[in-house]
Amino acid sequence: xxxxxxxxxxxxxxxxxxxxxxxxxxxxxxxxxxxxxxxxxxxxxxxxxxxxxxxxxxxxxxxxxxxxxxxxxxxxxxxxxxxxxxxxxxxxxxxxxxxxxxxxxxxxxxxxxxxxxxxxxxxxxxxxxxxxxxxxxxxxxxxxxxxxxxxxxxxxxxxxxxxxxxxxxxxxxxxxxxxxxxxxxxxxxxxxxxxxxxxxxxxxxxxxxxxxxxxxxxxxxxxxxxxxxxxxxxxxxxxxxxxxxxxxxxxxxxxxxxxxxxxxxxxxxxxxxxxxxxxxxxxxxxxxxx
Length: 290
Fold this sequence. Notes:
D-amino Acid Aminotransferase, Chain A, domain 1, Branched-chain-amino-acid aminotransferase, 290 residues, alpha+beta, 2 domains, amino-acid biosynthesis, 15 strands, aminotransferase, Aminotrans_IV_CS
């Protein structure tokens, strides 16, 4: 499948039923379009099975709750909607996007308590998120923006509004020939990339930023468990930028990114694509296709 995302063949699940792809539309006065009252999930289906699909459904509901939205569907109903989309489009290996938002209704201001909460699920075939960087190592820019304090916005929600600085940072990175950008958080600690969590390796041990100001990714949690099951020591902690030059390996994790090695961050930080990175990438690939 190719072409603009609003002009494709296929089916999208929307508010309880499958509709033609081109008919999956919303009104211009939808609250989410004006006030970012929207949450979403990104998932991958491997050989006909969505990896940790139920966990993603539960997180979608929790993200909505954190934005003061009551999900109109249970996790089991969301699971069924995703399966319906995959079956309707004949996909076995695909990316799945579930989104929940405040629609148009009686309110059109900051307050939108009377507007309905709506939901849709789409899926499409999507290869490597970072292209050749998945094998050659990504190059990251350093974002000028910072991940915000949890006191300013619910950072534990996968909320659309939290991604605006991601879009701007990734555009700036791409303009420099980079694959992505690395954020610091509001305190100056290393945080994450625009759509993936970051890990570092030093002397066979793994270090990853503590997820206290950004989303604790489902893939991140999976990788940490895989590493610990292998007997690898994992440190979840605050990491200062001045520590990064001492790390030997670096990799990104995420549903879209899967496990992607990093070769360079900014102008000064360089990494090898080492054995820890290669092994965990292989272990993850085996797990998702099990």
